[in-house]
Amino acid sequence: MKDGTVRRRRTRMAGALLSALALLTAVTGCGGAAERAESTKETAKETAKETAAPANRVEPLTDPAKPQLPVTVSSSDGKKVTVRAADRIVPLSGSLSEIVFTLGLGDRVVARDITATFDQAEKLPVVTRNHDVSAESVLSLRPDLVLAETTTGPDEAMEQIRDAGIPVLVVDPAQGLDDVGPRIQAVADALGVPADGKRLTQRSEDRIAAVRKEIPAREEHPRVAFLYLRGSASVYLIGGRGSGATSLLEAAGAVDAGAESGLEKDFTAITTEALAQAAPDAILVMTKGLESVGGMDGLVKIPGVAQTPAGMERRVVSVEDGVLLNYGPRTDQVLKSIVKQLYGDGS
């Protein structure tokens, strides 16, 4: 598989195969105290609702603001983008879709990327084929704003959308917790709701911090290898530095075994030698990936897996494909799931 294709699939799987910890810019001036007080009240209300939110639903902000447009914002592709309307939005990654819906603007979204798997987006038409954008499908929906990532493609499709006069905001893909705040704010600014971007960033930070406080203290951190599996296509990869999993695993108090063992590429084909070098205590997989190889019984048949500590103990951490590496508003839920599966009751 070509490196560019792997990166594109990883980024969109999510997010693509990827919430966050970027700190909110300090508020200054006489209005700062009021904004902080409002943020505190918002966090309290949202935290009270946290346990009630279904696992595969996003949780919109309470009392979302209406877009104040037009606005001109900077796009990650170096262009200036003027957004005059946001009534028909097409986000081209699962993570960007989550952000729009969580900002309370989901009723304006008219299509989804294949990686937007949460319940509220389920009935929207899909405008990607095998992770590639269909320009014809996008344009047929008459969008007034398209949200994309630097890895969104193919380039010809994106140029066709721009040539039709549709504003396209490009956002840098998420690689870790520190990226989510800037991504949330970039989308919120483009939609004309900058204050809600700050609210959502603060909520995400607070929830992630709360999960991290509950991680049991240990002298030795568990080594976890992230495996990307697609049994139907005979694709078996181990994540290295840049896979997108490192930040999440470290936040869970674990070590990214692939990165720590010296794997520098995003993903490397699984070999017995690579797994022996990584020596994971647990294996992190996406739910559908695990299903594609026949569950745990099929996983240990992949060469080298059964010989690792994780394979011998049959210790697997499984998270839904569409949210694992999104690094979006639901990252606290992802982190909580990983922590629970790694440490159980904390003993």
What does the model show?
- The protein has 14 helices and 13 strands.
- It has helices spanning 3-12, 32-49, 94-105, 135-140, 155-163, 180-190, 194-213, 246-251, 257-260, 272-278, 287-292, 295-299, 309-313, 331-343, and strands at residues 71-74, 80-83, 89-91, 128-129, 132-133, 145-149, 168-171, 223-230, 235-239, 255-256, 267-269, 282-286, 316-319.
- The longest helix is centred in the middle third of the chain and has 20 residues, at 194-213.
- The protein starts with a helix and ends with a helix.
- With 347 residues, the protein is of the alpha/beta class.
- Helix 2 packs across helix 7, helix 6 (180-190) packs antiparallel against helix 7 and helix 7 packs parallel to helix 14 (331-343).
- The model is unreliable at 1-54 (pLDDT under 50).
What does the main sheet amount to?
6 strands, mixed
**In angstroms, what separates the terminal alpha carbons?**
41 Å
- Helix/strand class: alpha/beta
Mean pLDDT: 87
Shape summary: globular
**DSSP, total strands:** 13
> How many separate helices?
14
**Percent of residues in beta strands:** 5-15%
**Fraction of residues in helices?**
25-40%
Q: In terms of per-residue confidence, which ranges show pLDDT below 50 for 5 or more consecutive residues?
A: 1-54
What string gives the helices and strands in order? HHEEEHEEHEHEHHEEHEHEHEHHHEH
CA-based gyration radius: 20 Å
